[in-house]
Amino acid sequence: MSHSDVPTVSTRRDPLNDSIEIIGHRGYSARAPENTLPALEAAIEAGVDAIEWDIHTAACGTPVLFHDSMLSRTTNGVGPLHRRTFVQLRGLDAGKWFSDEFTGVRIPSLREAFGHVRGRVRRVYAEVKGFRELEDVDRMLRVAQEAEMMEDTVFISLNWTLLDRLRGQEPGVAVGYIVAEADQVEAALDRARDDGRALVDFRADLLLEAPQIAERAHADGTTMCVWTVDDPADADRLLALDVLRFTTNEVGALLTWKRQA
To answer: Who's near 160: CB < 8 A, 6+ residues apart?
Structure first.
């Protein structure tokens, strides 16, 4: 894939950046069990612009949608996810913890998730969470390529070394540097500056408490994304700082806010 075929994510170059983007956090996680196909479907049916999900790697090397490193919070399994094969993971119930309505929902593979959303959302924010070895990260990239979702996917992570790995495998991949703490801001802005294929994904509180960070990023032409924004009042304040990409659990509330913004 040439660089010209890659989704551009700089505010100076991205034609999609002139509109607000509502991103379903782990799907529509307020309405369905996170990181499952029902959560993705609920987000799409609600009219979400984009979806964020988390990726871990099973013992067999299959990338799957899952947030935690341990299974117990969102399944009836116990222990580390990476010690179970995909077949074993598929035997777990990943929905009943949320409500009886979702009893029997399974952990989806990354390939299944891409197939479910392809052509139905503007963009996917794929957060790389867990892996056994760096080759697992390469496999995530290949799955996106084989699903023909590279142009619509931004790989994001708290572990920026993994994003460097992805760039090394495919220089045109769009990446997002997740910033959870104030001491990460400078390095993230340095990495994203003048990179039309990168964005910075801020914890929303950081920008709300220090709006000068957003002012600097905007002055640099750096695309900003924020997580997790469930209160429309916070979204108003962030929009005033030129933030246009909002990751939210409360998809319905933020979509209503968007229509009125």
So the answer is: 177, 187, 188, 191
Q: What's the CATH number where 219 sits?
A: 3.20.20.190
pLDDT grade, residue 7 (50/70/90)? very low
Amino acid letter, 232: P
Q: Which residue is it, tokens 């600097």?
A: 216
Q: Can you give the pTM of this predicted structure?
A: 0.93
**pLDDT, tens digit, for every residue of 192-249?**
999 999 999 999 999 999 999 999 999 999 999 999 999 999 999 999 999 999 999 9
What is residue 157's predicted lDDT score, i.e. its pLDDT?
98
Q: Which two tokens stand for residue 57?
A: 């790697």
Q: Considering only CA atoms, which of 225, 220, 221 is closest in space to residue 244?
A: 225
Q: Range of 205's domain?
A: 3-260
Q: Where do we find the tokens 């009836």?
A: 76
The answer to whether the CB of 38 falls within 8 A of the CB of 32 is yes
217 SS3 class: helix
